[in-house]
Each structure stands twice: as C-alpha cells, then as structure tokens.
C-alpha cells in the first residue's frame, strides 16, 4: 500500500523487518559501537542474561549448549550466515522470561514512560490477501512500537473470553508474551520455519489451561 500520514488515527500495517534494520543503524550511529556490544553492555550484563547472544556476532556470557536445530517441514537446516545477516538472537526460555519480567517491572529503560509509549497506539493488521501475508502475523493481532497485542475475538472463544497478551512472536514459531490479567509470562519455540502461526493457536490453549487451574 502507498505511504500514509504518520499522524493518521488509523493506518494500514504489514509486518517487515525494515524498521528493525533502520533501528540497528541508528543505534550504532548514536553509540559508535556495533549492535552486539550495545546489547551486552545495556541488556545482557545488567539483566544477567548469561545465555543470550547475537548469532555470528558475539558469544554468550557463560558456556551454553548449541542452539536447537531449525527445521523446514521435515528437513533440518543450518543457516549461520543468514542468521548473522539479520542479527538473529539466540536465547533460552529462562533468559527471555527474565528479560520480559525486567521489562514489565521498568528495569529495561531509564525512563519508565518508554514502555507506555510503546503501547500507546495500536493498529490492527488487515486480513491477509496473498500467500506471503499468510505466513506473517495476521488480522487477529494489533501492532504498536515493536510490540504485539493479541487476543481472540469473543466469537472464537465460546464462554470464556481470552485475555490480551503483549509481546512478540517470530517466524519460526517462537513467542514471548505477558498476560497482565492472569499475571503469566509465556516463552517458547517450535523451531519450525513453516510454523509462524503456531503461537496464535497454542497460546490461547495455554491461557485457558492456566485460567481453569486458577478457578
């Protein structure tokens, strides 16, 4: 779709990594350091994320097992140069949950208002009309500044509406979410390149199980 006014109340949105690449360039220009050093100094060491690193650019702070294999359908794939080129992050569920916990407690940004700014303006994704869009986050989610808000509409949740979750997913079936209503943090992956939609089917089931157990 064509360019849109930045200040428009509602905008068409479509996910891509362009802003991520631009942000990397801005961070490196402002700090005068490569991105992996900025991550280590401002995030990994202060938050004690000892098993998290940027693929092909750095190493974890402590010895860490080799990352799980990535799959495309039934075929294993190793793409170290590609992972390096788009600054892929390797981590563990423990580290990602620690990061998310620190984020919601206001320990990541110097100004706590930054997190509120990231969640100030939500735009709903449009319904996918092409094959490429079918693999990307779809119409059930809303996007703000680097953060997803996801909840199933009441029509799809029978008698128990799904509470909203905030966080992000990845194209290989990864997810990291916070559900404020249930006070739950969720992190996981299936490491499958064809499973980008899996988190949007699995997370509601997990939330229902948590909610039922708490009743």
From TrEMBL:
It comes from the Bacteria. It holds the Pfam family Beta-lactamase. Residues 4-185 form the Beta-lactamase-related domain. Coiled coil: none annotated. This is Beta-lactamase-related domain-containing protein. It comes from Candidatus Hakubella thermalkaliphila. The lineage of its organism: Bacteria, Bacillati, Actinomycetota, Actinomycetota incertae sedis, Candidatus Hakubellales.
């Amino acid at each position: 779709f064509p360019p849109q006014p930045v200040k428009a109340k509602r905008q068409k949105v479509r996910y891509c990594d362009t802003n991520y690449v631009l942000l990397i360039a801005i961070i490196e220009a402002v700090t005068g350091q490569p991105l992996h050093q900025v991550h280590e100094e401002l995030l990994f060491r202060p938050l004690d994320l000892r098993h998290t690193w940027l693929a092909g650019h750095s190493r974890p702070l402590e010895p860490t097992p080799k990352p799980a294999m990535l799959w495309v359908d039934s075929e294993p794939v190793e793409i170290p140069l590609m992972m390096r080129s788009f600054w892929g992050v390797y981590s563990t569920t423990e580290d990602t949950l620690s990061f998310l916990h620190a984020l919601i407690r206001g320990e990541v940004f110097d100004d706590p208002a930054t997190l509120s700014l990231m969640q100030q303006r939500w735009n709903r994704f449009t319904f996918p009309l092409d094959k490429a869009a079918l693999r990307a986050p779809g119409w059930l989610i809303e996007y703000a500044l680097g953060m997803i808000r996801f909840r199933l509409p009441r029509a799809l949740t029978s008698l128990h509406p799904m509470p909203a979750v905030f966080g992000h997913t990845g194209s290989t079936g990864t997810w990291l979410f916070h559900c404020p209503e249930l006070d739950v943090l969720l992190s996981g992956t299936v490491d499958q390149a064809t499973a980008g939609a899996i988190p949007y089917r699995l997370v509601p089931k997990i939330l229902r199980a948590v909610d039922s157990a708490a009743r």
